Amino acid sequence: TSSITTIYTTSSITTIYTTSSITTIYTTSSITTIYTTSSITTIYTTSSITTIYTTSSITTIYTTSSITTIYTTSSITTICTTSSITTIYTTSSITTIYTTSSITTIYTTSSITTIYTTSSITTIYTTSSITTIYPTSSI
Question: What pTM did the predictor assign?
Fold first, then answer.
């Protein structure tokens, strides 16, 4: 019920519902299920994203591997990943996740700022802020 600007795809997108704007999705692989009542700006993917539900903004997801399940009622800014992220639930902001390995399960009702990882993170639950995690091994 509002604008979508610029979807380029050479593979399938299944199910986008929006009552507000999406700007710029480029994909060479599948995206399944984006529901939004607010804006998403810039998703670039060469592999699959499954299930983004948002009632507030997401800005800039770059991925060459899969993301499964992002639920947010507040903003996420900048997820860059070349490996999988599974399950981010947030009712407040996340700013800047860069990963070349997997993250499994982040639940937050307050902000996370800056996670850089080249190995796995499993299970972050927070109701207050996290600032700056740089692991080169697993958490």
Answer: 0.69
